[in-house]
Specification:
Elements lengths: L2 H35 L6 H13 L18 H10 L6 E4 L6 E5 L2 E5 L4 H13 L2 E5 L5 H4 L5 E4 L6 E6 L3 H20 L10 H21 L6 E5 L6 H8 L4 E5 L7 H4 L5 H8 L4 E4 L2 H14 L3 E3 L4 E4 L2 E7 L17 H12 L6 E8 L6 H14 L7 E8 L6 H21 L7 E4 L5 H10 L2 E4 L9 H8 L6 E5 L12 E3 L4 H12 L3 H17 L2 H35 L6 H7 L4
Parallel strand pairs: 1-4, 1-7, 4-6, 7-8, 8-9, 9-12, 13-14, 13-16, 14-15, 16-17, 17-18
Antiparallel strand pairs: 2-3, 5-6, 10-11, 11-12
Helix pairs in contact: 3-4, 3-19, 6-7, 7-8, 12-15, 13-14, 13-17
Length: 595
């Protein structure tokens, strides 16, 4: 560097120091001036903003701590979190669907475990936490097995938690569940081009059902500080109702379906009421950051609130609500696999049961018969495969398990009829007396039977038109301890953000899906193993215990922060009374129970 350059550098450094000193002097002068005038008025927004910042300094983005990936997540991990971070905490889970259903058949009580993604995710969590699960009792024999408080201990044979059933009349169920929840909110939140239907009577039933479930939460709470995990779109109003009755409760609401953009959400006539209800939560969780962002945008557009975007929080009504993404998953290892036979035995049993030739490749789909799942679209892709590659006729069978769902609603009846008609036509066109290319089974299957089908499959298609996560994809991966099989996964399912080794497809493009099916059908064993091994690692590491543990750790931090803030407020009041406003942070932490 020349002497001129050195001199110029020193001039810049001295000038910078001079400006910094000037800024400090101006700031000090303003501070003295402000002190002489008294403290500036504090607005509600200032308080809410500062509260959000105080709470969220301790939080990592999306509820994940930096060392989360280094933890082996298991039931023991959850129990340790509860014992060390949330001692004496009561965990209450609320969902519409119950984990065990008791039905009456031929004069006997039959136990049914529903093949539900929500149940398969939450049941091991509730077992690990020894919690209370509150759900709608819809089984024909549900009332016969409960005690005088409408409780039953589950699982049968090895009880580890309490199932508390809530009873709804047929009219209440029609309005709350089939009406507002599934003719209104479900199509509103899914991009499946089905128009949502909103009725005043359905809204009233929805509000009343939310109140009934909230009352049950309060009745089941052993103290004023339970941790309540509210599940899904059936209970958007409940967090606020719980907050009004149990202000010290930690309410974690998890929204299992997508959240639409604010323009689509504006269609709902009760949009502000729904947002107000959800913002009664301490934490609101979504499967993906995209859906969390959509929710925050809706709040920003329709509610008078303060959005802390950098900290993923909303300040509303003097309360801070965290809005995080927590990708849901399944248990690992899957306990059910212990009772299943080896892969080859599963293949033989499934093929015999459904009449599938031994030399045909088996493609499977497993889900409820719902218009968001892309069932008809994959049927069209199968037909496109036969048109483009007629040599595959006779070499491929598609087994679709489609559990009947909401069959009284017109959109679901229409879908059922269309699927049946298409299956008949395709089988007539491409099948013969001994070969049916499409086997459509529209009936419920127990979880054990579903896993047996996963283990028998060569290909599993998860081609949702729009989905929050879709745990079928993760269940299929978990079932394949032989590290074989190929997963075709919709780009519009949340699972596609994690299972990158799946063959990602656009379910609206039948030609593209047919070519991807051909790729899967001809994929070698080594490539299958490499892809499946990586996906199994992902499901193992990001299992359901990590999902629940992340939320419980965030709940613990919120609780500790709340305790510290209460002690701080008490200390400040005492200091003002005594004329001494100096209280050490060490004393505050000791009073709050920190070590």
């Amino acid at each position: 560097m020349t002497q001129y350059g050195v001199d110029l550098l020193w001039v810049l450094i001295l000038a910078s120091l001079g400006l910094s000193a000037l800024a400090v002097l101006i700031s000090a002068s303003r501070h003295r001036s402000q002190q002489s005038k008294g403290p500036a008025p504090v607005t509600g927004d200032d308080v809410a903003s500062e509260a959000a910042r105080k709470v969220l300094r301790e939080f990592e983005k999306n509820g994940q701590s930096v060392d989360a990936a280094l933890v082996t997540w298991s039931p023991e991990t959850l129990r340790k979190i509860l014992a060390e971070d949330l001692p004496d905490a009561q965990v209450i889970i609320v969902s519409n669907r119950e984990p065990y259903i008791h039905n009456e058949r031929d004069g006997e009580v039959e136990l049914v475990v529903p093949a539900s993604g929500l149940v398969s995710a939450l049941e091991p969590i509730t077992r690990a936490c020894a919690g209370t699960w509150i759900a709608y009792g819809g089984g024909s024999a549900d009332r016969l097995v409960v005690d005088e408080h409408d409780r039953v201990q589950v699982p049968p044979g090895n009880p580890s938690y309490t199932l508390r059933r809530v009873w709804l009349s047929e009219e209440e169920y029609q309005g709350y569940y089939l009406g507002f929840a599934n003719e209104g909110l479900w199509p509103l939140c899914h991009i499946a081009f089905t128009r949502p239907i909103f009725r005043e009577s359905d809204w009233e039933a929805y509000e009343a059902a939310n109140r009934k479930f909230a009352d049950t939460v309060v009745a089941e709470a052993r103290n004023e500080r339970p941790i309540v995990l509210v599940q899904d779109y059936h209970f958007a109003l409940m967090p606020r109702m719980i907050r009004e009755r149990l202000p010290e409760a930690i309410v974690i609401t998890f929204w299992h379906i997508p959240w639409p953009n604010s323009e689509v959400f504006s269609i709902c006539p009760w949009r502000e009421r729904i947002l107000d209800g959800l913002l009664g939560s301490s934490i609101i969780g979504f499967h993906t950051q995209f859906h969390a962002n959509n929710f925050t945008e809706s709040v920003d557009r329709f509610m008078e609130s303060r959005i802390e975007r950098a900290d993923a929080a909303v300040s509303y009504g003097g309360q801070t609500t965290l809005v995080h993404a927590y990708p849901i998953s399944i248990e690992w290892p899957v306990e059910l696999l212990r009772s299943l036979p080896p892969i080859e035995a599963c293949r033989a049993r499934v093929r015999e049961r459904f009449g599938i030739p031994a030399d045909a490749k088996l493609c499977v789909g497993v889900e409820r018969l719902d218009y968001t799942k892309g069932i008809l679209d994959r049927f069209h892709a199968l037909e496109e495969l036969f048109i483009r590659h007629p040599e595959m006729i006779g070499k491929v069978v598609f087994l679709q398990i489609a559990a009947p769902s909401r069959g009284t609603l017109p959109a679901y009846r229409q879908l059922h009829d269309e699927c049946m008609r298409f299956a008949d036509e395709l089988n007539e066109r491409y099948g013969n007396g001994t070969y049916r290319p499409l086997v459509l089974v529209a009936e419920h299957h127990a979880q054990k039977g579903v896993y047996e089908i996963y283990r028998a499959a060569d290909i599993c298609l998860v081609t949702s038109l729009h989905d929050g996560m879709n745990l079928v994809a993760k269940e299929f991966v978990a079932a394949r301890d032989d590290e074989q099989g190929v997963l075709l996964l919709s780009t519009f399912a949340g699972a596609s953000r994690e299972l990158l080794e799946a063959l990602i497809v656009n379910p609206y493009d039948a030609a593209m899906m047919s070519e991807t099916m051909l790729q899967a059908l001809t994929m070698g064993a080594d490539e299958q193993r490499e892809r499946m091994r990586r996906m199994r690692e992902i499901v193992r590491d990001n299992n359901v215990y990590r999902w629940a543990g992340s939320m419980l750790l965030d709940a613990s931090r919120l609780r500790k922060r709340g305790e510290l803030d209460r002690v701080t407020a008490l200390s400040d009041r005492q200091a003002n009374t005594n004329g001494d406003n100096v209280v050490s942070i060490f004393e505050r932490k000791q009073a709050a129970g920190f070590r």
